[in-house]
Amino acid sequence: MADARLQPVLDPHALARELSGKLLIGGRLVPARSGRTFDVVNPAKGDVIGQAAFGEAADVEAAVTAAAEAQKAWARVPARQRGKLVAECGRVLQDHVEELARLITLETGKALRTESRIEAGVLSDSFVYYGGLAPELKGETVPLLPTTLNFTFREPIGVVGAIIPWNVPLLLMALKIAPALVAGNAVVVKSAEEAPFTVLRVCQILSQILPPGLFNMLSGYGPECGAPLVAHPKVGKVTFTGSVETGKIVYKTAAEKLIPVTLELGGKSPMIVMGDAELDKAVDGAVVGMRFTRQGQSCTAASRIFVHDSVHDAFVAKLKAKVDAMVMGDPMDEKTDIGAIVSCAQFTRVQDYIRLGRETSGATAHVCSRLPDDPSLAKGLFVQPVIFTGLTNDSRLAREEIFGPVTCVIRFTDYEDVIAQANDTEYGLAATIWTRDLKIAMDAIHRLEAGLVQVNQNMVVQPNISYGGIKASGLGKEASLEAMLEHFTHKKSAIINMA
Ligand code: ADP
Q1: Which CATH superfamily is domain 2-265+473-494 in?
Q2: Is residue 47 scored above 60 in pLDDT?
Q3: Do the strands 23-25 and 28-30 form a parallel or antiparallel pair, or are they unpaired?
Q4: What is the pLDDT of residue 146?
Q5: Is the beta carbon of 176 within 6 A of some atom in ligand 1?
Q6: Which is deepest, 234, 236, 302, 453, by most CB within 10 Å?
Q7: Domain residue ranges in the chain
Q8: How far away, in angstroms, is 390 Cα from ligand 1 center?
Q9: Catalytic choice (110, 176, 237, 477)
Q10: SS3 assignment, position 52
C-alpha cells in the first residue's frame, strides 16, 4: 500500500504543470466543467507557472454533492477511527514537507527557509494534533430523575465550505479541514486565486488515505466559485479567512441560510514597548511580529508599534539595523530571508501606502534591506521593508490594513494613553506588550481589545492555541479543541424516560 502512494516531487515547476487545469472532486482530479483555466504567476520572476482550473457553480454543485454523499458514511465511522485516519494524513504530509514548501514558494513568493518549510511542517502537525483529539468528541449527562437519563452528544454539521486566502494557505487549510473531518464532516475547500496548486497537492495526498468525496478542492475566483459555495443549500457551515469586505458578503449569505460561520478577517495589531522592556528581545519580537519574512502579509502583523519615548530612538535604530541585515532575494535560495509580494495588485497597493506615508507631514520613512540585483528577478514583485516614524495613530497607514512590509513606530509617554490608542482601531485580532512589570502586563492583558494578547513574545499561530479576533477581525475561534467542538459540531440533547 505504502509503495503505491504518491512520492514527493521536488521540482515545483513540474508539479504546477501536472496539477494545471485540475480540481479535486469525488476523489479524482478533474477539469472544470467549463474547461476554463486562469494563469498562475510566480511573483519572484513574473513567469506563468501553470493554469488553474476555473471553478464555477457547476463545479461547486458537483463537489458539494460528492461531499454530502461521502459524509453520510463518514459520520458513521467511530470518532477514534476517523481520528486515526486524519493523524495518518499528518504523518504522510510530513514526508511531503519539502515538496509542499517548494511549491508554495513558487506560487506565493514566500522564502523557502524562513516561511514555507515552517508552514508545511505546521500543516502536518495540525493533522496529527486533531487526529489525537477525536476521543474528545464527547458529551455530558445531566441529573434529572433516577428513571430519566438526559445526555448530550456531538453531531457533525454535514458539509463544510472552507474558503482560504493566499498568505498562509497550508496552515489555514489545516486549521479548517482537520477539525472538520475529525468531527465527522465532509469539506469543500476553495483555494485563493494566487495559490491553488499547493492546496490541490495536499488534497491529492489526502485522497490516498481518506474516502473519495470526503473533501474536495475547487480553485477559482471569489464571485464565480466562492460565492456559490457559500450559497449552496447543502453547505451547512462556512469557515472563511480573508478580507473584511468579503467576510461581510459571506456573513450576509450565511445569514440568509441561517447557517453558522467562522470568520477570520483583518487586523492592525498593536505592539506596545514599555520603557522598562528588554529592548533587544522587543526588537526581535517586532521582526517576528511584523512578519517581515512574509513581506508583512499577515493579518496579525504588528503594524502599529507604540514605543515609550525613553526608548523610542534606540528601538528604531535597532529595528532598522535588524531589518537592514535581512536578505531579500530569490525565495528558493536558502540565503534569502525576504521574498516577493504575492501579486501585482498587492504590490501596487503596498507602493501606494508607502507613497502616502512619505507624503504625510512629519513622517520619516526608514527604508531597509536591499532589492535583489539578480537579473533573473528583474520582473519580481520585491518591496523594501519600510519603518515609518512620526506618523500618528489616526493616519491612514496606522488605521488601514496594508498587508505589506510597512510598519508604523509611534512614540508615547503615558500608559493610559497608549492603551486607548492601541484600542482605537476597528480591528481586534492580536496585541502584544513588552515590559518587566507584571502588574502592567496583567492590566494590559485585560484591557487590550484583541482575541490574543501576548506578553514579551510574538509567537505565530499554533494548532493548540485558540485563535480568532473580535470587532472587525472576525467571529469564532480557530485552532484548539474548542474550534473543533464549538465550530464543527452541533450539540444534541437527548432525554430517555424509563419510568
Ligand atoms: P484577499 O484580499 O486577501 O485576496 P479576499 O477576501 O478577497 O482577500 O479573498 C479571500 C478568499 O475569499 C479567496 O479564496 C477569494 O477567492 C474568496 N472570495 C472572494 N470573494 C468572495 C465571495 N464573494 N464569496 C466567497 N468567497 C470569496
Answers
A1: Aldehyde Dehydrogenase; Chain A, domain 1 (3.40.605.10)
A2: yes
A3: antiparallel
A4: 94
A5: no
A6: 302
A7: 2-265+473-494, 270-463
A8: 34
A9: 176
A10: strand
